[in-house]
Write a structure and sequence with these properties.
Layout lengths: L9 H4 L4 E4 L1 H11 L4 E3 L5 E19 L2 E17 L5 E12 H6 L7 E4 L5 H37 L13 H16 L19 E10 L3 H9 L5 H4 L4 E2 L6 E4 L4 E9 L3 E8 L10 E9 L4 E11 L3 H18 L4 E2 L9 H46 L6
Antiparallel strand pairs: 1-3, 2-3, 3-4, 4-5, 5-6, 7-13, 7-14, 8-9, 9-10, 10-11, 11-12, 12-13
């Protein structure tokens, strides 16, 4: 019987690019999940998504160097209905031309909603329409934020070779022999079956690094501190439900549960420190980093620094991009002006000439002093030569 060749290490098998098209599954996911969304007003008004009428685009899951990458860009048309405060049934539709990795995960662009009202307008209908345009986007984007994780949870095993034999498509050779041996022992033994020795896997230390992101905003430090920690204000820039208890050991949850942790310490309005973990297949299980957010206010702006310690090596670029996209762009999207440090202004031609003249005048002073000294020495030498030469020249010449 030919020997079974050893299996390829997971790190090697997962190095090259693999991808899987999951567009049909994605269409079913949106059709199932989006119709569960509903919102309510302060009174009796309420509205909900009733149907996904059109879905167009591509959805793929890729894997490269052991990293799972969601790649998607789709257009979605929805129908909604609601009940106005006077009991009128209101209907309409909305077109969302782009739901993609870029605006869901990277946050480099905003969602666009094209709303349409089908019911004749009245004050009560208009009030409900405003409720729909204000609150449904928040609920929709919360659901959109769940989509990348749903792709990975459902299809990640199909493009990844796991180091855990239980997750591989076929059992490891060793596991078959152990099971057969155990069955044989159980059939012939007198009660106690032989148990195979279980080798305890040692947890390897995780190599980590630090990621730092800075941004300057035209806002006061206390306002930004409140915006980043107040449970009621956080959803305005994350566009997703949030939980936040800003006190030591108080829990927090941002971006619909995508980021979670606890507050370690708070020094309003200058600094707060939190534990930080990311709900992502690329983030190690049970691993926690430490995020320190500092706010340094100057006369016209506040510099916010996010310093994340404990980032697994190899994921620095992804984490920095996420902080830029979710935190910085989130604040910018609600009107907080982001200042870009300007380079020092160029020196004008007039200033350059003035400085050159000054430098020339300064540097010429020593040379003028030296020239005067050389001139005096020259005069002294000339006088000395003349003193010896005059008597010689004044003698009468002999006639031949």
């Amino acid at each position: 019987m030919a020997a079974v060749p050893p299996s390829m290490p997971a790190s090697t098998a997962n190095w090259h690019w693999k991808n899987k098209t999951v567009t049909p599954w994605a269409k079913s996911w949106f059709e199932r999940e989006l119709v569960t969304i509903s919102v309510k007003g302060d009174g009796s008004e309420e509205a909900s998504i009733t149907e996904v009428t059109d879905f167009d685009g591509d959805v793929e899951l890729g894997q490269r160097k052991s990293k799972l990458l969601t790649i998607y860009d789709v257009k979605i048309d929805l129908e909604w209905k609601g009940t106005a405060s006077d009991g009128t049934e209101v209907k309409g539709s909305v077109n969302i031309p782009e739901v993609s990795h870029e605006n869901t995960v990277d946050r480099i662009s905003d969602y666009i909603y094209n709303w349409k009202l089908e019911t004749p307008r009245t004050p009560a209908v208009d009030a409900l329409f405003n409720l729909v345009k204000t609150r449904l986007p928040v609920a929709l984007e919360t659901k959109f934020a769940e989509f990348p994780s749903a792709i990975i949870d459902t299809h990640g095993k199909d493009v990844t070779v796991s180091a855990d034999p239980s997750r591989q498509g076929t059992p490891a050779p060793g596991s078959v022999s152990v099971s057969a041996g155990a069955a044989s022992s159980g059939a012939t033994g007198s009660g106690a079956s032989a148990k195979p020795a279980v080798k305890k896997e040692e947890k390897k230390p995780l190599n980590t690094t630090t990621v730092t992101v800075e941004a300057n905003f035209m806002a006061a430090a206390d306002d930004l501190f409140s915006l980043l920690t107040d449970e009621k204000r956080i959803p305005s820039w994350t566009r997703a439900p949030a939980q936040s208890a800003p006190q030591p050991d108080g829990p927090y949850s941002l971006f619909g549960g995508g980021v979670q942790g606890k507050f370690i310490s708070l020094t309003p309005p200058k600094e707060f420190k939190q534990t930080w973990s990311l709900k992502s297949p690329t983030w190690p299980a049970n691993h926690t980093a430490t995020l320190t957010t500092t706010l340094d206010q100057s006369s016209d702006s506040t510099k916010v620094t996010w310093k994340l310690e404990g980032v697994p090596l190899g994921s620095e670029e992804e984490i920095e991009k996420n902080i830029q996209g979710y935190y910085v762009h989130g604040l910018k999207s609600i009107g907080y002006v982001l200042l870009i440090p300007a380079p020092p202004p160029p020196i004008s031609t007039t200033t350059k000439r003035r400085e050159q003249k000054r430098d020339h005048a300064t540097s010429s002073k020593p040379s003028e002093t030296s020239s005067r000294s050389y001139f005096a020495i020259g005069l002294a030498l000339l006088a000395l030569v003349a003193a010896f030469a005059i008597p010689y020249l004044s003698r009468p010449t002999r006639s031949s």
